[in-house]
Amino acid sequence: MGPTMDGTKQQRRGNTRQRIQDVALALFAEQGYEKTSLREIAERLEVTKAALYYHFKTKEEIVVSIFADLTKPIEELIEWGRSQPPTLETKHELVRRYSQALADAAPLFRFMQENQATVRDLRIGDTFKDRTRAVRDLVIDPRAPLVEQVRCVSAIFTLHAGMFFLNDVEGDPEDKREAVLEVALDLVTQAHSGA
């Protein structure tokens, strides 16, 4: 079997996995995590429970895999940031990419907000806090005056707050994300210039 055939098979399997994740998140949002069964996820996907079982044995496994996949860009961003000089350009790029990564993971964050007990049980929250701290540490200059450090922390919080608090505000989601990003970038610029 040539590498192309194998590659296609791999991709197809990847897509099924992703479809399971999407459908599971949608069902969790509709009827709650506790009330959703693997059987219902399989039915919505129109696959057998055995086919679903091939990818995931439990609902917990589905959630953990969603978390791993959707936060991978944040991990990659942290690695990238650690390899860059701590210039204003780097910090702006970090904030821009972090904003995009958060937007892409929005369904996961809604799940985390609505299912805090599950998130605690699965230790997802701790991992997310560690990643947020790592991003924060890349934006902050520990030698800077405290006020400037607070501005940088506020830039990260602004991105998080924008995700949750602007959900029910009227307007186009992309416009809202742009506005939140602009405020976050301004804070980093002010901190950098000591304004």
Please give the alpha-carbon distance between the first and last residues: 63 Å
**Gross geometry:** elongated
Percent strand: under 5%
What's the count of strands?
Answer: 0
Please trace the helix and strand order, writing H or E for each element: HHHHHHHHHH
Low-confidence stretches: 1-12
Report the helical percentage. Answer: over 70%
Mean pLDDT: 88
Describe the protein's architecture and organization:
By secondary structure, the protein is an all-alpha fold. It has 2 domains: 1-57, Homeodomain-like (Arc Repressor Mutant, subunit A, Orthogonal Bundle), CATH 1.10.10.60; 60-193. It contains 10 helices and no strands. Helix 5 runs antiparallel to helix 10 (173-193). It is elongated and about 60 Å long. 25% of the residues are buried. The model is unreliable at 1-12 (pLDDT under 50).
What's a quick, concise take on this entry?
By secondary structure, the chain is mostly helical. The chain contains ten helices and no strands.
